[in-house]
Design brief:
The chain is α/β, with parallel strands linked by helices. It has 2 domains: 30-120 and 182-213, Rossmann fold, CATH 3.40.50; 137-177 and 223-358, 3-Layer(aba) Sandwich (Rossmann fold), CATH 3.40.50. The chain has 12 helices and 8 strands. The longest helix has 32 residues, at 2-33.
Length: 362
């Protein structure tokens, strides 16, 4: 009898411990979801959300695509993502058709507040560009990748319609990489600020104060780019990331050809020859790419024009650059004290340093 009683007591204790553990787990889970849960679509938006909500009580910012480096055109929602969105009250996105997965989330979670932080921005077109130089190369000056009104509707472009169609897989309706334009990022900052104020008006003063501090930092960064523009305006280049079109446009550098590269990009021989021809036509010797594709761009293009590849940071993830022709030590890890807007500004200043060095101005 004593043995049975002992077994019974052991079983009872096990059940009690199990119930206690469940209660603790439930309480912890509830604690995690109490307050305002803000989910961001990817890294540049995350930086803004963290900076604006810094110090806010009960606010949690989580990045939906935290394990995805690079842009998210082809991102697919996971079960974990759907669960996170089901718990969120606020979902901040980049916009510009960057989040092609958004339709599924909008259908699943009709009560989720989705804020497009780029609303109202005048996007540039995607990677389509003018191929026709004809007998008179000056005709090319009428169009470029950096012209937001550029629609390729002229007769000269139609002559090359078949050639353009071959590049459709690389084209986007718009160039959504506006965080590499400081004016674009300032607009997104305002969108994030208003989203937090509306979602949590009790802490509106804090959000406003944080946003004003961010605005001051970004304005200072913009002034540094405007100063550099004095020496760089009028130069031409070819880029291998759509975001760099925006970045270089701030400096007055015209992109005559943009090839958007990713892990699946296959460069056709005809396109490679065309880009090389454009570089020679415009006297271009500096090409801009991100680290992952610097070697490919060097082997395919830079060697052909006796030029060099300058590695820039697209600011799409928390990572180091480790490749390039300009002082690698200028692209090391960030200070642990840096976060949000300060981190963004540091990385954009390093991009500016690389560009200035490449043109022999620093």
């Amino acid at each position: 009898m004593g043995k049975r009683k002992a077994v019974f007591m052991c079983g009872l204790l096990a059940v009690m411990f199990g119930i206690t553990a469940m209660i603790v787990a439930f309480a912890e889970k509830k604690g995690e979801t109490d307050g305002l849960l803000c989910v961001t679509s990817f890294y540049p938006v995350q930086l803004l959300a963290e900076a604006v909500s810094e110090g806010a009580e009960g606010v949690t910012v989580k990045n939906l695509t935290e394990n995805h480096s690079g842009c998210i055109h082809d991102y697919t929602l996971t079960t974990r993502d759907m669960r996170l969105l089901s718990e969120a009250e606020l979902f901040l996105i980049n916009g510009g058709d960057m989040e092609l997965f958004l339709e599924k989330a909008a259908v699943e979670y009709k009560d989720l507040k989705i804020v497009d932080t780029s609303e109202g921005y005048a996007f540039l077109e995607g990677v389509e560009h003018n191929h026709d130089h004809g007998a008179d190369a000056d005709a090319h000056e009428a169009e470029s990748c950096t012209d937001p009104a550029h629609n390729h509707g002229d007769e000269a472009h139609n002559v090359h319609a078949d050639e353009t169609d071959a590049h459709d897989d690389h084209s986007e309706a718009v160039n959504a990489h506006i965080w590499l334009d400081v004016d674009g990022y300032l607009l997104q900052l305002s969108g994030v600020e208003e989203a937090f104020v509306q979602a949590d008006p009790a802490q509106a003063a804090l959000y406003r104060k944080n946003a004003d501090a961010c605005r001051a930092e970004l304005t200072k960064l913009k002034e540094e780019y405007e100063t550099a523009k004095i020496a760089l305006a009028g130069k031409e280049t070819v880029v291998f990331h759509e975001g760099f079109v925006y970045l270089l446009r701030m400096l007055g550098i015209e992109t005559v050809h943009c090839l958007s590269m990713d892990a699946d990009t296959q460069i056709a021989a005809g396109e490679a020859a065309e880009i090389t021809e454009e570089c020679k036509l415009h006297g271009i010797t500096l090409l801009f790419a991100e680290a992952e594709y610097a070697e490919t761009v060097t082997d395919t293009f830079a060697k052909e024009i006796s030029g060099q590849v300058v590695v820039l940071d697209p600011v799409t993830g928390d990572r180091k650059l480790n490749t390039g022709t300009i002082s690698d030590d200028a692209t090391g890890g960030m200070s642990p004290e840096e976060n949000g807007i300060s981190l963004y500004c540091t990385r954009m200043r390093r991009n500016l340093d690389r560009i200035m060095q490449a043109y022999g101005l620093r």
